[in-house]
């Protein structure tokens, strides 16, 4: 920019006073001020328009990035969906083959018999007194019934007072 100090402004004012004259100098100064104001407003408008364009360009870039991210997410979801669908098809085929090799009624009877034998061994292998001593409950009772059972004094049916 132009470096205008006080001494240079005074020199310009003296030269303008001599060249233009004292009658026309106020009109010329007013017109110069008006033109200078218009120039400043124009420069400010250009700056704001340039900054708006830069912001729009940034927004377009962000929009493009978001669209790419959405496209990538869509691709990954589609890929996961197709993989899951393929796994389900494979599982369906496996179950179909497993159903073809189902157990016969004789096999089911043998399994049921062995299950009953194991259950009987599990429930009757320990004597009842041992189960009672070590906390395995024979009968399930509610919490309030347990509290009443272990209360130090029995409650009478009368009133509190």
Summarize the structure.
With about 160 residues, the chain is mainly α. The protein folds into two domains: about 100 residues; about 45 residues. It is about 75% helix and about 0% strand.
Structure, explained:
With about 160 residues, this protein is mainly α. It folds into two domains: about 1-100; about 105-150. It has five helices and no strands. It is elongated.
List the helices and strands and how they pair.
Elements: H1 6-20, H2 25-100, H3 105-124, H4 128-133, H5 143-149
The biggest sheet amounts to: none
Provide the number of structural domains.
2
**Strand elements, count:** 0
Q: State the share of residues found in helices, binned by percent.
A: over 70%
Strand content: under 5%
Structural class: mainly alpha
As a whole number of angstroms, the C-alpha radius of gyration is 49 Å
| Number of H/I helices | 5
**Mean pLDDT over all positions:** 81
What is the molecular shape? elongated
Written as H for each helix and E for each strand, in order along the chain, the element string is: HHHHH
Cα distance spanning the termini:
101 Å
């Amino acid at each position: 920019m132009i470096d205008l100090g006080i001494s240079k402004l005074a020199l310009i004012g003296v030269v303008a006073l001599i060249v233009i004259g004292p009658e026309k100098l106020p009109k010329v100064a007013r017109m110069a001020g008006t033109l200078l104001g218009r120039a400043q407003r124009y420069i400010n408008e250009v700056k704001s328009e340039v900054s708006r364009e830069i912001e729009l360009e940034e927004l377009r870039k962000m929009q493009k990035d978001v669209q790419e991210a959405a496209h990538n997410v869509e691709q990954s979801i589609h890929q996961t969906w197709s993989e899951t669908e393929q796994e389900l098809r494979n599982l369906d085929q496996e179950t179909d083959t497993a159903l073809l090799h189902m157990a016969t009624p004789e096999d089911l009877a043998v399994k049921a018999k062995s299950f009953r034998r194991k259950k009987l061994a599990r429930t009757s292998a320990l004597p009842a007194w041992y189960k009672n001593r070590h906390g395995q409950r024979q009968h399930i009772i509610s919490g309030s019934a347990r509290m009443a059972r272990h209360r130090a004094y029995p409650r009478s049916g009368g009133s509190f007072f």
